[in-house]
């Protein structure tokens, strides 16, 4: 494979390396981030970085690179795209073609987030001779598993301290300095099967779940609606799935449901998920409850490096979704999300990024690096 001659060719190569998150139904055998990590490690070494592959899960490493400064003690800036993509199931285009057509590059990850990653990488390549002499020490991390459970960002945030983090996401080159927290609230009830002609002899797991979901739709929903943020609006919840029983004339002995919860920063307090679980157990003592929450993000928009991003043309905004930035912020590291392209194209059946947006990303990150 020849070296890419420009950012378009780089993105095409990244899209052609399948790196689908294995969670759920990936829709392909091309799962995991190992091949992508190997490619990135070689590219980064070629432009002067010291590179480590830090395995987080089996054959699923983070790629961690740094350009040592000309003196010790410089503040660290991390550029952090993720290397995995969502499933390719149901796509209407060839997911790994990287086709250049109609001024766009097509394929899974072109928008989320291999396009923003390519812009970062090409800007680093173009500015590689000046990186060691900047006032900040530059780091790059290709983070695995952002699309499910965020293992990569959680691991790196626990291992290293950074003074500023930019998680690459397709934000239209706006600075997402705040976003909602998120939790998938998983509920399971159990009962006792029996013939539906004698429901009194069984125990209906769906009835139990309906009692629990009634609390979600009334008490919890009212609480969420009252929690408002001047940038992000209110907290929200949505019952996303429900599944139970096996046949109409059998009393159901199980029921499962999931609730999508999105929290504005002031609402997301320690113990909030435990409080919800305890309330449901008052209604259904044997309900099983679990969640893996991601915290909200808030970085003060007056931060000096957000001001430098502003000098490059990026304005601070909020977002209803969440990303890897929050796990660094949770540990006291100022973090934002930023990159070229539109979030509206992420996860779509015909994902793409416009070449003009990709090239604008290179120019933007090049200007920002010059201000460091």
UniProtKB/TrEMBL annotation:
Record field: transmembrane: none
Keywords: Hydrolase, Metal-binding, Zinc
Residues covered by the Peptidase M20 dimerisation domain: 178-286
Pfam families: M20_dimer (PF07687), Peptidase_M20 (PF01546)
GO molecular function, one term: hydrolase activity
InterPro entries cross-referenced by the UniProt entry: Bact_exopeptidase_dim_dom (IPR036264), Peptidase_M20 (IPR002933), Peptidase_M20_dimer (IPR011650), Peptidase_M20A (IPR050072)
Cofactor(s) recorded in Swiss-Prot or TrEMBL: Zn(2+)
Recorded superkingdom: Bacteria
Family, similarity comment: Belongs to the peptidase M20A family.
Protein name in the entry: Peptidase M20
Organism, as annotated: Chthoniobacter flavus Ellin428
